[in-house]
Please model this.
Amino acid sequence: MLWYKLKLSLRSLANDKINSIINIFGLAIGMAAVILISIYVQHELSYDKFNTKHERIFKLISLLDDTGKDLTPYEIGLRLTNENFSNEIPEIEEITQILRGYRQNAKVGDKNFTQIKCIYVDTNFHRVFSLKPISGRTTHLLSNPNEFVINKSTALKLFGTTNAGGKEFEMFGNLYTVSAVVEDIPLTSSYDFDMLLPFSGFPRQAGHRSLEYYTYILLKQDINKEDALLKIENKYSKMLDDAFGYYGEKTGSYVQTLKDVHLRSDYNPEFKEAGNINTIYVHILLAILILLIAIINFINIITVQYDNKLNQIGIKKAIGAERNDLIKDFLGRTILMSSIALLFGLIISETLMPFFGNLMNRELKIEYLSNPLLFIGLPFMAILVGLISGLYPAITITKYTPAAIIKGTLQNNQNNNLLSRALVIFQFTASFVLLTAILISQDQINYMKNVDLGVETEQVIAINNLSKTQRIAYSSIKDELLKIPEVSLVSASLHMPGGGASGQIFRLYGTDVEATKNYDEYRVRPDYFKTLGIKFLEGHEFTENQVDSCKSIILNEAAAKSLGIDDPLGQFVWFHEDKYEIQGIVKDFHYSSLREEIAPLMFSCFSHNLNIQFVLLKVKTRNMTDLLVKIKDQFKTIDPERVNYHLFIDDIFRNKYHQEERSQTLTTFSSILSILLALLGLYSLTLFMVQKRTKEIGIRKVTGASIIQITSLLFSTFLKWITIAFLIGVPIAWYIMNHWLQQFAYHISITPLPFVLAGLVTALFALLVVGGQTWKAANQNPVDSLRSE
Model:
């Protein structure tokens, strides 16, 4: 019996190929979108859960403010140890800290290796975070100050084997040993490393007194967690207040669970680019929206299909078919179509997954058997979609009596058409809102990437990965670089322009200590401002004569304004326990993202060449390939073995918006899919309505109506629906995008243009779909039209 009904269902689908293909194809696209976005969302929600103790691991966040505004969160904090912190809170099992070690170079034999990502850690790091040793020590991994832990990839890179425990390598001019090789930590980690360096081997790195360390706390099991976290916050807040309250800072702290670091941080995590839980919600909404539009198509097409088969249903009921049996048949058929759509959806997902992974900047995989979301969720989705899609048509169409169907005296079939129209209007409203969102978000991204930043970043190159000898020889390298005709200016800095800054405090000389304020700091060398085209409002930049004993600073406008005095130039400040003069004020420039307002920034001049991290060059040519060879050759004359890298400063300043660009791209594809699905639904509905009005069209042509008049008559109906969708969509799109723009301190104003363009594009596509059908109907021979009924 089941096989017989299955054959009947398949034969029914084959008899109405166009609508069946549209229905199944539409559902398949919707399901593919759900599968792809679900894999991505699941990936984002799984961050840090590979740590077996992740539910008991918490990250400690510092809060500081000196402006009277909200406390600002910092993921770095004071140096905490058992002695000064955790011994007083018995609920703490372990406390461990991390200090960034940046990318370092190593040497094995006569081979040099670069770009090894190092972090300094406490010796109990592996007792908090999950590490899987594969060679070398299996316990006490970080107990020896001269032995480092490396991951599997680094072992293969340095030694060509994972069995590298006990092997030696050179770093910082010293010889070290591999304590253990551990498995690479999963990509779903909020921290990352190639090499772990124990603080015990680097006392200087363990002894910083400012906010430098990332703190993770492992709580004991079976404790009152809320009480423990409150004790931690109170204890640490007091330590911050002891350290900074003296300077008039307001302080505080909070803890966050490890699994929240990736998606729910109100600061920018430095180890890895973070996600955003609101973006995840948007992606989930897009997936649901696409599936919903596909289901609406399904309902519309099924409804009009069965509207044409009412006589068959009436005859079945007349010869004894029960309503429940008919409903079961309907639902069985829609579940069959939904299952076929799922198979095609899986094929589409598998095909698009590599492209989708690149788009979202993630390594995503579809693992059916090991992933309950897919193993159980996909069959469940097929059944649920089949039931939802088929339930309304099944219930409404089978409720009529056989006599009413056969006599054609149905009173309520108009309701089906009204529902179909309402669903089509919903589809076009959703498509219009998505299209408007794309246009507005693209305008904002273009604005952020092209706005005048107040700094001339074009044709400025940064050379990094300098060796010790290259840093010491900076002055002679600068002289040689300036001899290259294409190089106009050369400077150096400790901080990357447009990158992170150090945090510093100072106050006007002679004022109370409570007047101390926080400032971002860039440490630079002479010619820095000319190289980057930063404009001076007053004063002048650092000179070579100042380098050895510079007691001056330069401020941006925001920093000068924060001092609250009329003429800051020439004033003295108390900085680094010494008296410094403000020798210049520069115009504000956007050194951070446009999401944030320009913060107070100070520049200091440093003398120690070993602190030089970047050599900056302003060049006069766009032929970078040949020029970069010349530039790097100059560095090689000092250290032939060193491999130096280059960065374009314009990229550093402009490419801060990857997350927005990825979301915008995903929204673009989602919008294309939703519009495509809406148009498919409109095509089927148009086909149905034209068939219904065939006789009317024939009569109108016989009575003298032109083809244009008939086409306009038919299209006016659809144009009315699109107009309604436009009127509903405008306030919705405006509200959503206005809310989205508020996250940027600097943003565009919403103009009518995106709404008009989105409306025109929606109407144009609808015209193309509907126009073809209506034009064909209007050109039909009226004799054939009248004969058809």
